[in-house]
């Protein structure tokens, strides 16, 4: 059996709704002495974090990836959720003196958002012992999380010839140009959305052609416009897969990565694996939250074949 290693973050997304407009309560001429309290309608807690989101959709695809991340003293509820979905916990380090990373998101009636993020346990590396990892039967993704983990694991994968996807995402602003170049160099795939790719190009002073000389391929997601695969074979467009109803695009990117990984470990070519990523993303946008969607492997296959054909 092929093993999937997912390094990244585990977090609680705590979402609040403000029944008004922020603009009615923030005075521009007093912004230098801002002191505002917003009373919200309530709070909902969702499971999140890049590693948790990617692992969740892979579990729906009958995979049992290893999550490499750190969690805090309040992780019991999330831990029970992962167990209920058949996901192993051996790669998760518990930090007793910290809380699990948390995003506190308040949205007003015009969809403006104010977010506070506490990295909590994510400040600590996961320190996973790779002694039981078989390089010949392993694939990895380095997704946004603890920076030390991102550097350490990408170096390990290169040294031991474990193919990995580099997904810098939200951590791009925290990395130096040298760190970005190092992690891109030797990656099987660099994946990002189009805005993040521009950030990478600007930060590293590398054009896409130069990036392709370092990474085996580049996948750029474009939201509702699908994605583009750049490789030595040229440029291939991958259409978005139609969802029944788009409720929440948050988490679609992580679901895309899940389908992509499933395709790769199943021996699919890169284009087909990317179409599987597009199919997985279409389920994620149909419901609010990054780990709320459900599908069976049969439902996944049916939707994929309707879009891309039986050989897609």
In short:
This protein has 312 residues and is of the alpha/beta class. The chain has helices spanning 50-60, 76-84, 147-159, 177-184, 194-204, 208-214, 252-265, 270-284, 297-308, and strands at 3-7, 11-17, 43-48, 66-71, 92-94, 101-107, 113-118, 138-142, 164-166, 189-193, 218-221, 227-231, 234-238. The chain has a single domain, classed as UDP-N-acetylmuramoyl-L-alanine:D-glutamate ligase (3-Layer(aba) Sandwich), CATH 3.40.1190.
Topology:
Elements (H helix, E strand, L loop, with lengths): L2 E5 L3 E7 L25 E6 L1 H11 L5 E6 L4 H9 L7 E3 L6 E7 L5 E6 L19 E5 L4 H13 L4 E3 L10 H8 L4 E5 H11 L3 H7 L3 E4 L5 E5 L2 E5 L13 H14 L4 H15 L12 H12 L4
Parallel strand pairs: 1-4, 1-8, 2-6, 4-5, 8-9, 9-10, 10-11
Antiparallel strand pairs: 2-3, 6-7, 11-12, 12-13
Helix pairs in contact: 1-7, 7-8, 8-9
The CATH architecture: 3-Layer(aba) Sandwich
Largest sheet: 9 strands, mixed
Q: Round the mean pLDDT to the nearest integer and report it.
A: 95
How are strands sequenced across the largest beta sheet? 5-4-1-8-9-10-11-12-13
Order of helices and strands: EEEHEHEEEEHEHEHHEEEHHH
Number of strands: 13
């Amino acid at each position: 059996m092929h093993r999937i290693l997912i390094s990244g973050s585990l977090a609680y997304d705590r979402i609040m709704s403000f029944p008004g407009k922020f603009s009615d309560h923030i005075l521009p001429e007093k912004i230098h002495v801002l002191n505002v309290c917003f009373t919200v309608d309530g709070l909902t807690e969702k499971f999140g974090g890049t590693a948790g989101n990617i692992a969740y959709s892979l579990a729906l695809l009958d995979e049992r990836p290893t999550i490499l991340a750190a969690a805090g003293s309040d992780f019991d509820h999330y831990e029970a959720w992962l167990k209920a979905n058949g996901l192993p916990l051996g790669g998760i380090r518990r930090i007793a003196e910290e809380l699990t990373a948390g995003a506190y998101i308040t949205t007003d009636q015009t969809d403006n958002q104010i977010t506070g993020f506490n990295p909590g346990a994510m400040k600590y590396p996961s320190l996973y012992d790779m002694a039981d990892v078989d390089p010949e039967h392993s694939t990895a993704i380095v997704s946004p999380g603890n920076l030390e983990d991102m550097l350490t694991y990408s170096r390990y994968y290169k040294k031991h010839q474990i193919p990995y996807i580099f997904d810098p995402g939200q951590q791009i602003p925290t990395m130096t140009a040298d760190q970005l170049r190092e992690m891109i160099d030797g990656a099987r795939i660099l994946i990002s959305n189009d805005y993040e790719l521009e950030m990478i190009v600007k930060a590293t002073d590398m054009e896409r052609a130069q990036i392709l000389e370092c990474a085996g391929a580049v996948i750029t997601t474009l939201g509702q416009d699908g994605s583009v695969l750049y490789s030595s074979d040229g440029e291939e467009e991958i259409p978005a897969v139609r969802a029944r109803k788009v409720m929440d695009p948050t988490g679609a990117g992580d679901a895309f990565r899940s389908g992509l990984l499933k395709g790769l470990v199943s021996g699919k070519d890169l284009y087909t694996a990317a179409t599987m990523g597009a199919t997985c993303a279409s389920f994620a946008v149909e419901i609010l939250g990054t780990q709320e969607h459900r599908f069976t492997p049969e439902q996944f296959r049916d939707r994929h074949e309707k879009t891309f054909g039986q050989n897609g």
